[in-house]
Amino acid sequence: MKHFTFTIVALAVLALAGCASLPPGLAGGYSTSADGYNIGQARQAQNVRLGIVIAVRNVELAPDTSTKALGSGIGALIGGLVGHQIGGGNGKTVATAAGAIAGAVGGNKVAARIYRQPGLAVTVRLQDGQVIEVTQAADIALHAGQRVEVVGEGWGNSPVRVVPLD
Length: 166
Known about the structure:
The chain is of the alpha+beta class. The chain has four helices and five strands; from the N terminus they run ααβααββββ.
């Protein structure tokens, strides 16, 4: 019975994990990187505005709600299966429920921690005088006074990136 339960847990974790992206440390990079492009962006014209960085500050990029919810779901499943191994009768039911709740809370906290990314809030004065701030992964060194390109539309859900010209 224990081997069966372990197999079910392992298959459930693999199935749910297949739905999610890997944490940045395991994926080899950040999805919020200024150097990260997806296939849909290939051969697409991008607006480019030139500017000067006037400030850079470190920020923390937290995972979105769906990523933390997936962690809660996986945690609840594992916690419920582990709790189900304890006791019998009504005690088994209580242990299963308690395991699921504890697993959900723990899974949410684990997902929030492993998907967290270091970021930069980069303030840029564009050539037309407009001042904007772009937040992105902290994997490209940027500093005040640096000439940069701001690539992308920047309106709605269109991503924007700041990349050095020098």
